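Entry 12.
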Amino acid sequence: MRIKGFVDLSMVDWDGHVVSVVWTPGCNFRCGFCFNKTLVLKPESLSDVPEEKVLSFLDANRRFLDGICITGGEPTLQPDLDVFCGKVKKLGLKVKLDSNGSNPAVLKSLISRGLIDYVALDVKAPLNPESYGRVTGVSSESLVERVKESISLLMNSGLDYEFRTTVVPGLHSEDDIRMICEDIRGAKRYVLQVYRPGDTIDPSFKMLKPPSREFMLKLAETASKYVKEVRVRGLV
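Predicted 3D structure (tokens):
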């Protein structure tokens, strides 16, 4: 599997777990606020991290690690994602997958084969083409239907999961979060993430101030009416 970034130790990428993290190249979304700009737009400019290096580290340190987080980019675009997950599982480690939900067939295969243990699925906006297009730069009915399919799949899979939304000022209102929560009503866990500025795809987001603590807590209160557990991640 193509890997463009590797962090050997993280305690923030999977709540309650100590993991390594790998980043895969490329994404089928173009979210203006994404801070993995080079990974999405120019992945060929980044050096490859040999898969063998990652697996060797995991093997040598599996007594101290709970598993690995596979993120991106969008990992489900990698044709050999399943093979890599299988190699990690053979080491006795858990696998967390970060995904935008656009490839439900891949997600279904990984779940049915027992190759992943946790999924963090981004719900970028209310599930309609106009809202998704505004936030992701990609607008189509078929895309939204695929994300809906991934959401339904997770909610009925028995696998541990979270849905999450990065709250970006100017893109997400309280009404947007309410509509998202209506779309995921009854979900096990929903995480509201505080937007933090960085080297974003759209430069206009680079200097944008994060949403206030008060606003985030207000959104959490709204979300709690629809889902079983709400977390706010990134508050200072």
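Annotation: The mean pLDDT is 97. The first strand starts at residue 5 and ends at 10.
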